[in-house]
Specification:
Helix content of chain B: over 70%
Oligomer: heterodimer
Number of strands of chain A: 4
CATH superfamily of chain A: MTH889-like domain
Helix content of chain A: 10-25%
Shape of chain B: elongated
Strand content of chain A: over 45%
Distance between the termini of chain B: 55 Å
Structural class of chain B: mainly alpha
Number of domains of chain A: 1
Order of helices and strands of chain A: EHEEHE
């Protein structure tokens, strides 16, 4: 079983919730989740984000579901850091 | 839990501005309608207080229902349109997201504000009539007291708008009061 330590995601989201609220929603998914959000592009109705999440044993399915619930869309997984157990 | 969900939906849709506008516009509508009704009864020949109360209550309910239904229909259409546009921009269905919940629940919230605002204002204005009907003696009579309450509420709406717009509160309060007094004058001339 692999232990996911770091993920970098490319995410498209509506302007609301804003980047801070988005980061808070992801960070609230697990204890010790550290979230770094960088806004790469701002369009009329959407924003493209690079979301870096760090923590011990990141739950990708939970993160994906939270992104969906926020109304954002996961475009790609750009970086992954995993430790084998 | 429900409160937290409502707060989240409010954060996404930010309908405070439109709710404030609906609250004032329809509340003002309710107060002025009640004032007009009471002035009409006041200048008419002696009308039974129970008839006045029933008429005012019916008008208040009609204002409430009108506010509720009209705001719901228009806001639901606006929210649905905004959701479809956002889905186009996202190239992705938002049916499972908070944005879809916003399109369902925010129209109800806005409609509730729009409907309750004139209803509550009207009920406050009718209160002196109820008190008089239940035997309480009012110094200037039930109808003038109720009209005075309506004028105070209209003045307060003006003050509130003055504060929202950043203008001098007394001036906007007096402007609002002036509209009410002109309305009273016109009804008086009609009678």
């Amino acid at each position: 079983m692999a232990n996911v330590q770091r993920l970098v995601l490319d995410v498209l989201k509506p302007h609301q919730p804003n980047a801070l609220e988005f980061a808070n929603a992801i960070a609230a998914l697990g204890q010790g989740y550290r979230v770094h959000v960088r806004v790469l592009e701002v369009d009329e109705k959407t924003e493209t984000l690079q979301v870096a999440i760090e923590g011990d044993g990141l739950d990708f399915s939970l993160i994906g579901a939270a992104i969906d619930e926020i109304g954002a869309s996961l475009h790609s997984i750009d970086e992954v850091s995993v430790i084998g157990e | 839990m429900l409160l937290k969900q409502i707060k989240t939906l409010l954060k996404i849709s930010r309908p405070e501005e439109i709710m404030r506008r609906y609250f004032v516009v329809n509340g003002y509508d309710g107060a002025l309608t009640m004032l007009g009704l009471m002035m009409g009864f006041h200048i008419s020949d002696q009308v039974d207080l129970a008839v006045v109360i029933t008429s005012c209550l019916a008008a208040a309910l009609a204002l409430g229902m009108s506010g509720l239904s009209s705001a719901y229909i228009s806001e639901a259409a606006e929210q649905r349109r905004a959701l479809v546009q956002l889905e186009k921009a996202m190239v992705h269905s938002l049916e499972e997201s908070r944005h879809a919940q916003v399109a369902v629940w925010i129209p109800w919230l806005v409609a509730l504000v729009n409907g309750l605002s004139p209803l509550l204002v009207a009920l406050i204005i009718i209160t002196p009539l109820w008190l008089a009907n239940s035997g309480l003696a009012l110094a200037i009579g039930p109808l003038p007291t109720a009209m005075a309450v309506a004028l105070v509420i209209l003045f307060l709406f003006g003050v509130f708008l003055g504060r929202v717009g950043g203008t001098f509160w007394l001036w906007s309060g007096l402007q609002s009061l002036m509209v009410a007094l002109v309305t009273l004058g016109l009804i008086y001339l009609l009678g």
